[in-house]
Amino acid sequence: MNLVVDIGNSTAKAALFEGGGLVRTVEIEDLKEVSFDGAIVVSTRSGHSELERWIEERARFFVRMDAATPVPITNLYATPATLGCDRLAAAVGATAMFPGQAALVVDFGTAITFDLITAAGEFLGGNISPGARSRFRALHEFTGALPMGSLPDELCDFPAGETKTAIESGVVMGILAETERYRELSQAKSGDLKVIFTGGDAEYFAGRVNFPIFVAPTLVFYGLNAILEHNANK
Fold first, then answer.
1. Residue 86 and residue 28 share a domain
2. What's the helix, strand, coil split of the chain in %, to 5?
3. Which of 10, 81, 98, 106 is most buried (CB neighbours < 10 A)?
4. Are strands 102-108 and 111-117 parallel, antiparallel or unpaired?
5. Which of 27, 48, 64 is the last residue of a domain?
6. pLDDT digits (tens, 9 = 90+) for 60-70
C-alpha cells in the first residue's frame, strides 16, 4: 500500500494506492488510522513539516519529491529547478493514465498551467496564466471602482449590459479562449492528443468547452504514485 500526500500552501490532500490503482482518498486528520508501506510527499512549503516527519518515520520507503527526484518521464524543461513539482507530477500522471499518448494537461487553480507531454513521454513544458479567482481579485484590487466577481452559473451573451456581469463573463470567456488556443497549438505540435483538466475549477470549465476533454481530479496523485514506484524499483 502506497500513501501519496500533496501539501499545498493552505491545504493538504492524501490518497492510498495499491497495485497502481487508487484505493481511496484520505483526510489528513485520519492518517493515523492508515497503514502503508511506501510514501511520497510533495510540498509547496519550505522545510519539512511535522506531517512529513510523521509519515517518514512510519514508511518503509519514503520519497520527498523535489527537483532532483528521478521521474519515469523525460523532463525537457530548460530550468528544472524552477519547475513546480505539482506540474511535473501531473505530467507523470498523464502518462500513467494514457501511456503512449500525447497530452495537454490544464490545471485550473490559483494559476492555470498548460503543459504538453509527447506520446514518447517527454515533458516539453508549458505556459502559466492567472486563474479565475486571481483575475477577479486583480480587477477588484487594482482598480478604483470594479466590484469583486466570481464564477457565474451562466454566461451572458456578449456584450454584457452591466459591470459585474461584464467582469464575470469576461474572465470566464477569456479562460475558455485561452484553453481553446492552447489545444490548437498542442495539436499542431503533437497531433492527436488527450486534453486533461485537473485542479479546483476543472469541473466548472469542463462543462463549458466544445471539444473532448478528460477530467482527472486525482491526476497529481496518480503521478506521485508512479514516481514513488519508479524510485522504489530502482
1. no
2. 40, 25, 35
3. 106
4. antiparallel
5. 64
6. 999 999 999 99
pTM for this predicted structure: 0.91
Residues of the chain with pLDDT under 70: 9-10, 45-48
75-109 pLDDT per residue, tens: 999 999 999 999 999 999 999 999 999 999 999 99
In this structure, what DSSP letter does residue 6 have?
E
**Which residue in the list 6, 37, 86, 115 is annotated as catalytic?**
86
Structural domains counted in the chain: 2
- The CATH number assigned to the domain holding 209 equals 3.30.420.40
22 to 28, 45, 128, 141: CA distances (angstroms): 16, 25, 28, 41
Write out the residue range of the structural domain in which residue 52 sits.
1-64
**Would strands 38-43 and 21-26 be described as parallel, antiparallel, or unpaired?**
unpaired
